[in-house]
Design brief:
The first copy, chain A, is α/β, with parallel strands linked by helices. Chain A has helices at residues 15-29, 47-54, 66-74, 91-101, 112-125, 149-158, 182-205, 218-223, 243-247, 280-283, 357-361; strands at 10-14, 36-37, 61-63, 79-82, 104-109, 129-134, 164-170, 212-216, 232-234, 258-268, 273-276, 302-305, 316-321, 326-330, 349-353, 366-370, 376-381. In chain A, the strands form two sheets. In chain A, strands 2-9-8-7-6-5-4-3 form an eight-stranded parallel beta sheet. The first copy, chain A, has a six-stranded antiparallel β-barrel with strand order 10-11-14-13-12-15. In chain A, α3 links the parallel β3 (61-63) and β4.
Chain lengths: 386, 386
């Protein structure tokens, strides 16, 4: 089987690039002796990818949905962090999964209300729940501030309960995505580290346990200068990379491991565009540009040849994404050579490197795996939904 | 079962509103005697919805993927229009489906190259393919212009071939989405009608058959003044409606039949926002605002109560969509009352009315069906992917 034999659109994963990206992150993590690594599987959502990502680490992973928790537990993973604040109605399903598979699932809370609900549900379900407290170290999405009075109160609501326990603190430095230099990312990483360690110290000073101090985001995991006091790093999108991550310096365009295989469905020579059968559903409508436009706008994705190489006459990008139609034009509106219609007849194959791979991959139920080149060497499952 | 018993996020379909939307469209179609109606299932992707949508019509439907074609053929539908320009590599799968189920599938071409490929593949596969020619009546996405010399050449490449036949013309007036008044939509509908009829007449003048003259888009289907010469109308999103369609006058916000059920996962009282467990994957990242911002921006969706009613103190909207987190704020930044945190504790349920329901629904494999109210009366399947 080769790429030419696949239906389009299909999701392609280059395991050679994946392996290189994993090696890069592992080398960065090793700069921080004694700090563990818990890869986030929200991007890959694949047991095959997860097995490669945990190699050389303790085996713990991070998930973003209960569907992921169930899928990875069923694939033999035994140490999960469910990194979205818990709501009480999800606890019976988590308890059932823990009982059925023996998996350990660390929960996340950022309010006294939720902490009490976890303790109460644990008792009602006769299931011991362990939780981290989410700390806001500058993203201002979720979590409590390191110096918030609520922090210790949340810890007390969890600690020494018959069916609940406090395990520490975690933060997500998502605001690193707004940085446009390695220095700026390293500064965010330091604020992330300092805030999370500060929160852990406040808990310990109040006589509460905080063995876990968990930080993470792909940019800060790659560029943190020091991680004193941190016990584990989390990151997810680094495995694949995407155009947005390349724009902010987390990877190079050549490192991108996931792409969408598409067919040319039409030529519009009057307006100078190609159509492909990868539109908004195949690529996602994520521009990654809502608040923080990256330096180089590639619309809904960068179009490369079927073999992964860039078009020599100038980059092509998807400028519009209808449900099943992608409109492809030269990246630079002015002064660039026209679309190479001759090289791309109706039915020709191209690949699209996505803006935001977490959103793009979520539209597919499997990866068609290549190992460099165009030969299909495996098919790996993904889990979607909730 | 009630909404309160469902996991979140879940996709909710109100069949009472669906029935009203179908009745509205049927009444509009009936203003054009002799014109058929071929509902587009790219939005609903559900056999249960399709059965309701074809009631009173000839039974033909429109699809946007081969996965839909296979799903609907397997659910008993026998007359399909696959309304995306065909590429040769998809023809063996279509031939296999036609042989296996006896379904008729009208194909779409807009180039001599594709027309010849259809005729050649028909011969190679011993399968008779019938096709429409796509006409560009102003959207400038795909299709040939009504007066293009290529039109007749494409027709000749299909006509009187041993395994191919020409069935007529079709257009999609997607540029009606850019209109901001009923008058402007009606003008687009007239250009759509006139261009498609003109193309059919040119084919007939050249001695070619054009029994099918197919037009459509939800706005133009609703607001066309006259459809002389047209044989069928297609539309899809009218079944459900969405915030974008309500902004351009295709429906009212109260007509929206599909919503995402979500749970409140956090309060951020400092910044004045709520968090819900419906983010970019649960809602899609479609803003429907790339080129044509609607009059009222609701971010990634309008947040209403679990029972579907709007918050009386002022509208709430999803202003940011992370992968699994939605950030909810008041719609009007200035002068509006703050978030009703008291009414929305951790774990409270809300529903989100989507910007672009075609993209949102595609993230789910089923509809949880209500009939007004909050009681679940059915579960209907959807087909996703390609």
């Amino acid at each position: 089987m080769h790429l030419a034999d696949l239906p389009t659109p299909s999701l392609i994963l280059d395991r050679r690039k994946l392996a290189a990206n994993l090696a890069t992150m592992n080398a960065r993590v090793q700069r921080h002796p004694g700090v563990g690594f818990r890869p986030h599987l929200k991007t890959a959502k694949s047991a095959d990818v997860a097995r490669l990502a945990v190699a050389g680490h303790a085996g713990g992973i991070t998930v973003s949905t209960l569907a992921e928790a169930e899928y990875f537990a069923d694939h033999g993973f035994r140490d999960l962090l469910y990194a979205v604040a818990i709501v009480p109605a999800k606890l019976p399903r988590i308890a059932a999964l823990m009982r059925r598979t023996g998996v350990a699932i660390l929960l996340l809370v950022d309010s006294v209300e939720a902490a009490r609900a976890v303790a109460e549900a644990g008792e009602a379900l006769s299931t011991g729940f362990a939780a981290l407290i989410e700390i806001d170290t500058g993203e201002h999405r979720a979590g409590v501030a390191p110096d918030s009075p609520a922090l210790v109160e949340i810890g007390r609501a969890l600690h020494h309960q018959p069916f609940a326990s406090l395990r520490g603190v975690m933060t997500h430095a998502g605001h690193s995505y707004g940085c446009r230099s390695i220095e700026a990312i390293a500064d965010v990483a330091e604020a992330e580290r300092a805030g999370t360690v500060r929160a852990a110290e406040r808990l310990r000073a109040a006589g509460l346990p905080a063995p876990v101090v968990s930080v993470g985001s792909t940019p800060t995991a790659l560029h943190a200068r020091r991680l004193d006091g941190v016990t584990e790093i989390r990151a997810g999108v680094y495995m694949f990379g995407d155009m947005f991550q390349s724009a902010i310096g987390s990877c190079a365009v050549d490192d991108l491991a996931v792409s969408v295989l598409a067919s040319v469905t039409g030529h519009n020579r009057e307006t100078g565009h190609l159509l492909i059968d990868a539109g908004g559903l195949a690529l996602s409508k994520d521009r990654s540009t809502a608040d923080t436009p990256p330096p180089h706008d590639v619309g809904y994705g960068l179009v490369v040849r079927e073999d992964g190489t860039r078009f020599p006459g100038g980059d092509l990008v998807v400028t519009r994404a209808y449900q099943e139609h992608g409109v492809v034009r030269p990246a630079e509106a002015a002064g660039s050579p026209p679309i190479p219609f001759g090289e791309l007849p109706i039915g020709a194959r191209v690949r699209v490197l996505p803006n935001h791979v977490c959103m793009t991959a979520a539209m597919y139920d499997r990866y068609h795996v290549i190992d460099g080149g165009t030969c299909i060497v495996a098919e790996w499952t993904r889990t979607n939904g909730w």
